[in-house]
Write a structure and sequence with these properties.
By secondary structure, the chain is an alpha/beta fold. About 45% of the residues lie in helices and about 15% in strands. The strands form two sheets. The chain has a nine-stranded mixed sheet with strand order 3-2-1-4-7-9-8-10-11, with helices on both faces. A two-stranded antiparallel sheet has the order 5-6. A hairpin with a 5-residue loop joins strand 5 and strand 6. Helix 1 packs parallel to helix 7, helix 8 packs across helix 9 and helix 12 runs parallel beside helix 14.
């Protein structure tokens, strides 16, 4: 008689993990909805979840088998919350948030400017009980990450909060990372980190596509990633998102700096930059005028290592990202249309970028994929190159995923599958062996086409806003897109136009 196997069934383990994840996610979401009835937004809820999960995990790490010194001061640990109720709990929670915000490293950054947004002590106690009932250190990083990413996305959907500007669509991030193919033992940075989407996608890609040894795993966790995020609340969410996914140490230094990236480089060049700088053309600061009133003034970064001086935020980010790269470094940056066609500083920067880097690929993105309305954007892929006399860029490949493409956030969201053809055309394994899908005679609707540097230099202002496909809605009246798509396009175009007019008005008033 054969002995029964003691090896657990893989499908059973996977099902149990999925059930566990679903159970916790459901619990977290249900309580979030309860608090929304009290006027607590997703963003406020997300902050409190961040504080409490971090504190509970620190407590778990201080116990066997870890026995770690997490840096939590005496009297302000997790048990100091679970032992209190009512007004005493609320009062102590406020003291705890202030005290932990004074600490150094990752701990202090998580609790910087922390406030209690849950005014009902009974509901605060229920939230603490809910988090206390889960052993967070035993959950896989994918489980913890899925829970947190889900709440981040919900928060981004809350358009009134403005949180969407910090949340790049995850399918777009995945597609960019698949093209960039990050590997072990390199450094990766995002100077506008938001909630950490690019850094996490790069982390996942490296883990899944490389058989890492112990030293490489340690290096990936502690030394690979860095970034900047100047908004305290967003930086907190980013740090927690990274931490729950396994990046950084609970008692270590913060991988995300609170410094304004555009002020200057930190002296450390990196191998790869992945970024989606914040939308909005102008850099500005708030000042007090002679009448004692607050007003915004254009802020110009005077940097010797920039090619042009401008208050255009995205043009400045593009220049800054170039300065961050090692001699053979690579970058992929999401930028709005104005960067690829406007004159002045924009033209100067485009010409220099074509000259000193290999700006080999542009992905034209459709509207309806960002939480900010009416955004028309592109992804620029460029590789740095040691100095040489001739211009580095010889040809630019453009994939038009905008013309005749219709997406909306809820009814027809963009998925990774939608970008699969671009990933194939990009041919990351050898970008020097690409094949156009466009052909004037056999396939005029091909979305993948190359332009020589000579052709680009002949264009007005060296514009990289290049398209060749016919808009079906203008030429084929018999087969118009769905009314919902047409209405969505009209709204996007109006909102994009309004944004441009506001920028013009700002210039005139300035």
């Amino acid at each position: 008689m054969s002995k029964p196997s003691t090896t657990p069934n893989t499908s059973t383990v996977t099902t149990n993990q999925h059930d566990q994840t679903s159970s916790i996610v459901s619990k977290v979401w249900n309580f979030c909805n309860t608090l929304r009835d009290d006027g607590v937004s997703y963003g406020d809820y997300l902050e409190q979840i961040t504080y409490l999960i971090f504190l509970k995990m620190a407590y778990e790490y201080s116990l066997p088998p870890y026995y770690r010194d997490t840096g939590i001061p005496d009297g302000f640990d997790w048990t100091s919350l679970t032992n209190r109720t009512g007004a005493e709990l609320e009062s102590h929670y406020l003291k705890l948030l202030r005290e932990l915000g004074k600490q150094k490293g990752l701990l202090g950054q998580i609790f910087t400017k922390a406030l209690n947004k849950i005014q009902d002590p009974a509901k605060l106690a229920r939230l603490i009980d809910m988090i206390d009932s889960t052993k967070w250190t035993r959950l896989g990083t994918d489980v913890k990450g899925d829970i947190y990413e889900g709440i981040l996305e919900k928060n981004a959907e809350d358009t009134k909060s403005g949180a969407g500007q910090y949340f790049t669509p995850r399918p777009l991030i995945q597609a960019i990372v698949e093209c960039m193919q990050p590997g072990p033992n390199i450094t990766i940075a995002d100077p506008a980190a938001g909630t950490g989407g690019f850094l996490l996608a790069a982390y996942d890609y490296i883990e899944q596509n490389h058989n890492l040894d112990k030293e490489e795993k340690e290096n990936l966790k502690k030394n690979t990633f860095s970034g900047n995020e100047i908004v305290a609340n967003t930086r907190r969410l980013c740090l927690m998102n990274l931490f729950l996914h396994g990046i950084g140490e609970i008692d270590g230094t913060s991988p995300i700096s609170s410094d304004d990236a555009l002020i200057g480089t930190n002296g450390n060049s990196v191998d790869m930059v992945l970024a989606n700088p914040p939308f909005g053309k102008k850099s500005s600061i708030t000042v007090t005028n002679e009448d004692g009133e607050q007003e915004k003034e254009d802020f110009v970064y005077n940097r010797q290592d920039f090619w042009a001086t401008t208050s255009n935020k995205q043009v400045n980010f593009l220049q800054h990202i170039y300065t961050m790269l090692k001699a053979n470094g690579k970058a992929a940056v999401v930028l709005p249309d104005n960067v690829v066609f406007e004159g002045g500083a924009g033209e100067t920067v485009r010409k220099k970028l074509l000259e000193v880097t290999n700006l080999h690929t542009i992905l034209r993105l459709p509207t309806g994929i960002f939480y900010a309305n009416g955004v028309k954007a592109n992804v620029l892929f460029f590789d740095n190159h040691p100095a040489q006399e001739e211009a580095v860029t010889k040809e630019v490949w453009i994939y038009d995923y905008r013309t005749n493409v219709h997406h909306t956030l809820k009814r027809k969201p963009m998925t990774l599958e939608h970008l699969q053809d671009f990933i194939t055309c990009y041919n990351a394994d050898n970008i020097n062996e690409r094949t156009e899908t466009y052909d004037a005679e056999t396939n005029p609707n091909g979305r993948w086409r190359k332009y020589s540097i000579e052709d680009i230099k002949k264009r007005d202002k060296t514009s990289l806003d290049i398209f060749w496909l016919k808009d079906d809605s203008l030429t084929d009246l018999e087969n118009l897109p769905d009314p919902e798509d047409l209405a969505s396009d009209i709204i996007d175009n109006i909102e994009a136009g309004l944004a441009s007019f506001r920028a013009v008005l700002d210039e005139l008033e300035g």
